[in-house]
Amino acid sequence: MIKYLSFPGLGIEPFHIDRIAFSVLGRDVAWYGILITFGMILAVLTAIRLAKKEGISSDDITDFAFIVILAGVAGARAYYVIFTWKEFGYLVTDGSFLHNLGRTLYNCVAVWEGGLAIYGGVLAGLLTGFLFGRKKKIPFLKLFDILAAVVLIGQVIGRWGNFVNIEAYGAETTLPWRMGILTYGPALMDNGNLALTKEIYVHPTFLYESLWNLCGLLIVHLGLYPRKKFDGEIFCFYLMWYGFGRMLIESLRTDSLMLGNLRVSQGVGFISLILGIILMTALAKKARSGNGGEYKPVYEGADGTDEKQSEPSEESAGESPAKEEAPAREEVPTEEKTELSPEEDGAEPENGKEGD
pLDDT of 144-194, one tens digit each? Predict the structure, then answer.
């Protein structure tokens, strides 16, 4: 079967996108993988730039990026397998013990066969960030802020992989921006064309989430991060922003991971929203306490450009109180010297200064 996409309300006629971009040595390279990889590269480059702002060395953030990407992919796959093992038979039980164990472990790591869940990747990334921060003596909230700022990049780009794969879409709708999914079956019509066997028009939820994350990305990088008031602020905003958006968008989807009658991602989104509000309130209160009820700028001196530290040097460029008193001290020996008797006339002037 071949699937075509269309956006009739926007004047876009049916078109087809092959999920395979090209092949190398007999191995197919999917557009989904290319988009995910591109998002990772862009995220790492952005993380290096933010690390400099946070006072973290580029070597440390590069090491962290390598570890967190591996952990994130493993976590995303594990999360997906846990909630779909029964549906897709990831837990193999039809052979010997070694056969079952081997096939089950293979299913747990076979990301090339599809099946990743972003929440699993985020949870694994946060755990990795906490452990890495402890080992490297880096405040983990700084790492969490960097993670939150760059994971949005991957989410904005990665959702277009779902578009290519024609997945992660919502329920049927008649809205002007609806997305048409046209399925052509193997049966041939008289004119030699494939027969249209199914046609539905649905919510393009992949697009909703990509645009929602893009808005969050712009808010973070153009508004919040340059004026960050305390460590953990960006992370808390991410929890609230993504949690709220995912909670709403997930209600439209038809392929949600389920736990009984509960949409897992919708429940996790709600928890993220509440947790973000609680943490934001607690961290903001802690940041204000001890500073007269005001925030202390986070980035002063982080990159060697502390404006407050430069103030003493600017004052020293003018006349200091010590310099103003100097002429008065120099006049005293001169006056005393005129009153000295001829017998004391051979005394050194320097000794007279020290005596003052």
Answer: 999 999 999 999 999 999 999 999 999 999 999 999 999 987 665 556 677
Range of the domain at 345: 324-356
Say whether 169 sits in a helix, a strand or coil: coil
Q: Quickly list DSSP for 25-72.
A: TTEEEEHHHHHHHHHHHHHHHHHHHHHHHHT--HHHHHHHHHHHHHHH
Domain count, the chain: 2
Compute the distance between CA of residue 109 and CA of residue 275 in angstroms, rounded to an integer. Answer: 30
209 and 355 assigned to the same domain: no
Kindly state whether residues 202 and 351 are assigned to the same domain. Answer: no
- Whether 289 and 329 map to the same domain: the answer is no
Domain-embedded: residue 87: no
Is residue 213 within 8 Å of residue 156, measured between CB atoms? yes
The DSSP result for 250-302, as a single string, is HTTBSS--EETTEEHHHHHHHHHHHHHHHHHHHHHHHHHTTTTTSPPPTTTTT
CB burial readout 229-265, b (16+ within 10 A) else e: bbbbbbbbbbbbbbbbbbbebbebbeebbeeeeebbb
Question: Does 291 lie in the same domain as 204?
Answer: yes
Question: What was the pLDDT predicted at 316?
Answer: 40
* Residue 103 scores a pLDDT above 60: yes
First to last CA, the chain: 103
Q: What is the pLDDT, as a whole number, of residue 106?
A: 86
CB 216 within 8 A of CB 152: yes
pTM above 0.85, yes or no: no
Residues 287 and 201 in one domain: yes
188 DSSP 8-state letter: E
Write out 74-88 in H/E/C secondary structure: HHHHHHHHHHHHHHH
